[in-house]
Design brief:
Blueprint lengths: L1 H25 L1 E5 L5 E4 L11 E4 L5 E5 L5 H34 L3 H45 L6 H49 L1
Antiparallel strand pairs: 1-2, 1-3, 3-4
Helix pairs in contact: 3-4
Length: 209
């Protein structure tokens, strides 16, 4: 029984070996040399390694392709195109989302202009409040700075409390001026956005008519 099993295994292995050999022998390669000449063969020369070539079956039909490695320039170009495609798709999704927002939020152009005017009035009010606060702080800071300068001219050193107060004024002024600049930029941005929304609202309505 054991001899029978061993013999059976040997027969199976031999058959598999013949099958693999037959499959390997049936492969035919097609390639083009550096001079543009087309060649066929079962074993391409070493000079073809790393170059593009086709694999043919026994009927001469292409069943697979082996591509040549891409150059660093080609890889870089592919990466650039991929990044561009991602950016374009992201922009498309954002634009579609904005379109849905515009159509679901506003029924007519008047609603857009009213909302714009409401936000503009609120922005102007906030900016004026910041400007007034900055003016008051600057007046207080100049007063304390003048007192400190007088002490220094008299050969005296301002107290630590006065120095701390001056630093506090400087920090607060810097923060408020930064906030003022941000508010002013936001006002410009949202006005531009409302202009774009109004234009897009008209385009969407015209397309739906």
């Amino acid at each position: 029984m054991r001899r029978y099993i061993i013999s059976l295994i040997g027969i199976v292995l031999a058959a598999y070996s013949v099958s693999v050999t037959a499959q390997t022998a049936s492969k035919l390669y097609k390639w083009t040399d550096d001079e543009g000449n087309v060649h066929y063969g079962s074993a391409p020369p070493p000079s073809v390694a790393g170059k593009k070539r086709d694999i043919l079956n026994t009927q001469g039909q292409t069943v697979d392709k082996i591509s040549s490695p891409k150059t660093p320039k080609q890889l870089a170009e592919e990466e650039r195109k991929q990044k561009t495609a991602v950016k374009q798709e992201r922009a498309r999704r954002i634009a579609a989302q904005r379109d849905r927002y515009i159509l679901s939020t506003y029924k007519n152009e008047s609603e857009i202009t009213r909302e714009r005017d409401r936000q503009l009035a609120s922005s102007i009010k906030a900016i004026k409040a910041l400007q007034t606060s900055i003016q008051k702080l600057e007046t207080s800071y100049k007063t304390q700075r003048s007192k400190a300068s007088k002490l220094e001219r008299a050969g005296k050193t301002p107290s630590e409390e006065m120095k701390a107060e001056l630093r506090s004024y400087e920090t607060e002024l810097k923060d408020k001026k930064h906030n003022l600049k941000s508010r002013q930029e936001q006002e410009i941005n949202f006005l531009d956005q409302f202009d774009r929304d109004l234009k897009r609202f008209r385009e969407l309505n015209a397309a739906n008519q």
